[in-house]
Each structure stands twice: as structure tokens, then as C-alpha cells.
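Reply to dn_fold:

You asked what the input looked like. This is it:
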Amino acid sequence: MQLQIVNILQVLLIFQGVFFCFFLLSSPRAKYRSNRFLASFLGLLSFHMTLNLVFETSSLDFPDITPTLGLLYGPLLYLFVISLIRTDGLSTRLLAVHVSPWIVFLLLHFISLVEFQMVTGAAILFSMAGYIFGSFRAIVKYQSVLSDVHSETSSINLSWVIHLLYLLSSILILEAIRNFLFVPDSIGEKIAYSVMTLALLVFVVTLVYRGLKQPSLFGGISVEDISISKEKEERYASSTITDKEIMEHASNLEKLMKEKKPYINPSLKLSELAETMGVNPRHLSQTINTHFKMNFSEYVNQHRIADAKIQLAESVDSGKTILEILYETGFNTKSNFNHTFKELTGKTPSEFKKGAELG
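and this is what came back:
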């Protein structure tokens, strides 16, 4: 048996997938749905690559189900994305619906009297394309809701998933070219297969690394969060709050922000602030949107930056560093602090501090 470059890449992919799969399932975070779906995705990929390696390097004769396994990647990836962005559970019925096409094609694969591989290949490509598009839509919707209910979004906006979906789309296009434009076992087909396997290695490493970096304390958005954002989109047509109540909420909110400074909590949520004030989260959201003309994240960051400007101006005497100030005003990363500060003031924190020292 002589291993080719693509077979070596397959071995690496199998080892990588199995290692990460066991790591995810044995870690303290194995209880999170997202980690279980990620482990399932990696387990499937390892199993698939193992079968491919066996059939490509040996003459064993037993039923080959590999042509149908591609129908499971899209559902598992999509469910992984949904488990990252939603707090409500996924029903058993929903899981069954997503898996059912694979079961159908598996049965057809065994009972069909004609060559079924081309049909299955086309179905896999359409399935993957559909699930990638569905994942894109889910994340875009999630990001639009996030800024209405969370004060800090840079670490949980899942932009890294968007980048991974672009990479996966490229892999899918390469697979389509390999299957439908190249002659089987031709040099072009082998090169495309090797490049695709290498891209999968990069995809898996990035997926696991970024997936594990996802904040464990963040559970996603809830049905309540979505309804709050939806009411904003509908311009509060059915809202029962009066203009007078909005003015009262706005006044009480400003007083709370100045006296208690709840914005120093980097993970402050709309629901937490509403509970502190004793008001309905929907009414608080409407107050911020209509009275202050901002979403929740923008409103909170405005207060954080206002506090940071005062502290930076006083740092000449207090000796506080920019790093200390950013943490004390509710930011948890230097990059987010610098970006927000520059966006709201037109200067970087260093430039503002230098100006205060000169003044």
C-alpha cells in the first residue's frame, strides 16, 4: 500500500477530528449544545475520511455509504450555528427533519438499480449550499438583534462564523468543480481533491479554536430578545406605553446611569437594566430607541465613553493608565475601546489623553 499526499492529508484530518472530538466531549464545556454539535460534526468528518482512506488504499469489498454522508454536514453545521445564537432548545422533531434526507438517500443508495452517485452528489451540493445560506441569514438576523439587547457585542457577534462560512463556500465550489468538471482520477481531479482536503484541515482547526473561544457565559439570544427587536422594526405600532411614561423612563434611566454606573458591567444586558429599574424590557428598549435615537449598545457605549473621557482628562493627576480606564468603564478589550472611542470622539484614547495633558 502506497500512500499519496492526499492520503497523508486524510490521516492528519482523521487524527485531528478524533482528537478534537474527544477533547470537546471530555471538557467541562461538553454540556453546551454547541460543543456537542461541533463534536458530532468532527466525528462525522473523521468517520467519512476513514472510509475514504480505506476504500482508496485497499481492496476490501463491503457496502460503501460514503456517497451519502455529505448530506449530514449541512444540518450539523447549521444546528451548531443555531445553538450558538439561540438560548431555547432544539426539539427532537427538528433534528429528525434535518436528518431525514440522509436516511432517504441512504435507502435509495442501497436499493437503486441504476447509478445513483451523480444524483446524490448534486443533492449534497444543493443541501450544503442551502444550509450555508441559512446559516448566513441566521447570523445576520442575530447580529441585528444583538445590538438591541446587549451592551458589548464585539466578542459575541460571531463574525468569525461568517468568515468560516466563506471558507466552507470556497471548499464547496472546489468540490463541485472536482466532481462535475474533472475526469475521475485525472491529475486535475487529484490536485483539486488534495487542495480541498488541505482546506478542510484549516477549516476544522479554525472552527474548533474559535468555537472554544466563544464566551462560555454567553447563552445566545432569547425569544424575548427577538420579540423586542421585532417590535423596534415594526416601530412599536402595538405598544401601550405613553409619551409621558417614555419621558419618565428616560429621566430615570439617565439618573441611574450617572449615579449607579451599571455600564461598568461589560456584559450588561437590556433585561438586567430593565429589572434594576423595575420596568418592562420592551418599554425600556422603546425609550432608548425613540427618545435617545440609539440602540441599546450605542446608548451604553455613549455613557462608557463619556466616563472614559473624564477619567482620561483626570489621569494627568490620578496616574491611571488607558488600560485601567477601559476596564473601569465597562470595556473588556483594548481594540473595542479604541474603536468605540475613535468613533464617538474622532480621536484615539492616546490622542485625547495627550491633548488633555497639553491643555
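The chain is about 75% helix and 0% strand.
Hope that clears it up.
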